[in-house]
Amino acid sequence: MRASRLVSLLLLLQARGQLTAGELAKELEVSERTVHRDVEALSASGVPIYAERGAHGGIRLVDGYRTRLTGMTGEEAEALFLAGLPGPAAELGLGTVVAAAQLKVLASLPPELRARASRLVERFHLDAGEWFHTSEPVPYLAPLSDAVWNATRIAIDYDRGAGPTRRVIEPLGLVLKAGIWYVVAAADGQVRTFRISRVVGVKPGEDRFERPAGFDLAGYWGEAAEAFEREAPRIEVDVRVRPDRLDRLRTAVGHATVEAAEPLPGSDPDGWLRLRLRLDWPDEAPNAMLRAGRWVEVLGPPEVRARVAATARAIAERYAGDLV
Question: The whole model's pTM is what?
């Protein structure tokens, strides 16, 4: 345990330069006293590490010192190769770079770790996309990625369905969620999220901007996603479904939605299940019920039942000439 921590401390200083004892303690999830003991142990073993006192002081390695010790465990080697999603890397223009990096790491590993990493690649494959959905076209992902990396403002033509509008944004990061790319950017004095498939034009600039101090992309996305799910409009829909066709309902509205459904009071004359579903986005509820097919009947609310009936009637009228 301590050996792994000492290696992590070395690699942190090697990667980031000078860090305070408090910063190291936070990264390593130990006390500052433990950090000071570890520094003393490393120094006693011959590692050129020292601490500077004062307001701008901290712990650092002698300039030019590089450790060749990685301390990589078998689990870490496996995780590294499992993390390289080929699709997203290719969309960012990094597919060959990721492949080359994995080959170099594989070649540098000891034989036992190399075998474990190779087995993982042979036996596990991650596909981040959804079933029956092709990836959204994102022709402007590359210039947005460049703007994120170089911290330069970029003008985008953004179309949410009513025609494109020009926006000048300060891109802070890219996020891939369920096969969909988003750019998180400062715009109009706020941090906003833009779906990259809706960007229909870009005009890169060279005007640099200062990133907000301490901006945490993962933290922002987690809070934004939670708020989105919490604030999404919902509707309760009462249905009856034939028990042996419950899988059709799961396919239409999602397994978690069906599992969270509440049983409705009273019995059904045909022995069907009577459930109350909580669905996101009320306008989409009638379409979801139609996807469930004829083994599901909407009981309420009346407006959802009426829209399902109207759509079914329109479909029947279109095929009326083919009915016997």
Answer: 0.58
